[in-house]
Design brief:
The protein is elongated, with a radius of gyration of 20 Å. The chain has 2 domains: 5-83, no CATH class; 86-172, no CATH class. α5 crosses α8 and α7 runs antiparallel to α8 (122-140). The longest helix is centred in the last third of the chain and has 19 residues, at 122-140. A 3-stranded parallel sheet has the order 1-2-3, with helices on both faces. Helix content is 54%, strand content 12%. By secondary structure, the protein is mainly alpha-helical. The model is unreliable at 170-177 (pLDDT under 50).
Length: 177
């Protein structure tokens, strides 16, 4: 890290993503200890993810909170927390691309309506209905993501800019897929 000190200082911030697992917390603390000497105050932030919904972040990330308070690096209560949600697993199971969903490129509901109008089998419609529900649950989490990104000072790009970068044209990728 000493050799990278100049490079690290050029960054506006470094964000360590830590889950509530013991291993992730230990690795996160190790990264904080490595990066802290090379960064200015406020450049090192954490995002706490997969917090069990029935437990407070202070309990779920007890080691991390204790370490932050001990080192006085940042107030742990100010760090964004994303709670564990079945939405991620459902979206993964249905092979849904988060970014495409969030930027409106995938229209799962239209796919369902079209299949129904074309007389698709009950099994196909049932699978598409589950896919629609998975997509809706991801989209319902957008405000939570926005709050987390905003609290970290991360820039968000517009849907148009995202589509341009990704090569998306009128609801499908430029490659035709």
């Amino acid at each position: 890290m000493r050799e990278a000190r100049g490079t690290l200082q050029e960054l506006s911030r470094a964000i360590i993503v830590i889950s509530s697992s013991e291993e992730s917390q230990q690795q996160g603390i190790g990264l904080m200890d490595m990066l802290s000497p090379a960064l200015e105050a406020g450049q090192l932030r954490t995002m706490l993810v997969e917090c069990p919904p029935e437990v407070s972040p202070e309990v779920a990330y007890e080691r991390v909170f204790h370490h932050m308070r001990e080192r006085q690096t940042v107030t742990p209560e100010e760090e964004p927390v994303l709670y564990a949600a079945r939405a991620f697993q459902n979206a993964h199971d249905h092979k849904l691309d988060f970014a495409s969903l969030l930027h409106g490129v995938i229209d799962v509901e239209s796919e369902f309506v079209l299949a129904r109008e074309q007389g698709a089998s009950a099994k196909r419609l049932r699978n598409l209905a589950r896919r629609v529900m998975a997509a809706r649950s991801v989209v319902a989490m957008v405000p939570e993501y926005r709050r987390a990104f905003d609290s970290l000072g991360l820039n968000r790009i517009s849907t148009e800019e995202w589509q341009t970068r990704r090569g998306v044209i009128a609801g499908r990728s430029a490659s035709g897929s």
